[in-house]
Amino acid sequence: MAANMMEQGSELVRHMGIDHAEQQSRKAFIDFGVEDVQLLRELKPLIQENADAIVDGFYSNIERYDELISIIRDAGSSIDRLKAAQKQYLLELFDGDYGNAYVERRLKIGIVHNKIGLTPRWYLGSYSVYSQLIYPLINRKYRFNTGKALKAVTAVNKILTFDAQLAIDTYINAVMMDLKSVSLSKDDIENTVVQYCNFIESVATGDLSQSIEVSGDDDLGQLGAHLNTMTQSLSAMARQTSEASNSMSVTLNQMLGTVSTQSSGASEQAAAVNEATTTLEEIRAISMQTREKAEALGSTAERTRKEGEKGMESVELTVSGMKSIREKVEGIAENILALSEQTQQIGEITGTVSNLAHQLKMLALNASIEAAKAGDAGKGFAVVAAEVKNLAEQSQQATEQVNSILQEIQHATDKAVMVTEEGSKGVDEGMSLVNKAGTTVRKLTEVIKESALASQQIAASVRQEATGIDQITTAMGDINGATSQFVSATKQTREAAEDLGQLANQLRDSANAYKF
Predict the structure, then answer these.
(1) Helical H segments across 375-401, by residue range
(2) SS3 category, 7
């Protein structure tokens, strides 16, 4: 009759006294609220994606225990068939709807487990297996948001605790119903029930340090043992939660110290980057001025090179002119030597004065022409030519003066030869000086060309340097932006760590509410 009553699903919530108010009270006691519901809903896609792996892991743990395999086999089922139902149960944990329908389904599951002989030891232990399979997935999902990861883990822990309460209720209710058919005295049953109720009330208020003295192995004794097991599990869970929150507080304090150090270092780095950027801007301005000066120097060197080439051309023209003068001077020297020979012959040709005078005139005319061609160097010779012309005229007038004039002509010719030789030497020296000047100008031109090339290379190097400085400036700007983002991130990390510290304190306070 008890079983029939419990199997009426629509009546389970009412029959076991777990109405809406009782549900809200239980949720309030474990601090299960709207934020937890939202977190569980957000986790559902992750759980759906890994549901098969979680269920496989769950039953892999069950397969390690022969007792559980026997219970499943005796119930006429198998692990493969149970996996589908277990997957549905797992997904319902994250649906976000935890009202009457949810509570009734959980109560039905507890009733079935009780009927097939699955004791609370195995039932409650399964929640720990679920936790071990689900928590790593949550930590991986929120690996960059430890605060949200901790809240999500806490939300899962709360809903599993809520389910565990419902499961224990089904076991207790079954025992209470079965007590009606046992052959114990009314006083013994009432005393035991009162003892159990007082114990449960102590557990509900957070005292997990007590245990029930169990006598006998009947259903009531088994219930007491199960209650002790449940209390021990809750105590271990509360102790682990307290230890984890304390450890988290220590870690968060260390993290805050590290974040503070990083934030200080990042601020100093940002200041250094700004200073370096300012310095680079100054270097860039100096580089621009250097480039302008180098380009101006290159232009000047190029103009100098062109002027040097013109000077080289002038030197070459001068050398050519000097060569021409040398040739003319040599021609004059030859003429003077010939004139000297002719003057020597004049003494022998006294009989032909008229012809000699005519020839002298012609020679004087030729000498005048050559003197005009010789320029300044031929001025002296022009005078000689004029004298020869005068002598020729005088020879026509007075042949008696021929010998005397011939002597003067011979003397003048000797001087002209000497002057011509000196002129030839002067031309040679001039040629040597001009050649030296040409060599110097040629070397100067080469130096100017090298200077112009060097100036162009300097200008190109400065341009490359300016480009490199621009790239460095851009890179420093990027570094400055990244450093600013890092400073902002460390600030946010510090705030998150402080929030986590508060959350860890709250979690520790919640765990400390239990006495264990």
Answers:
(1) 379-397
(2) coil
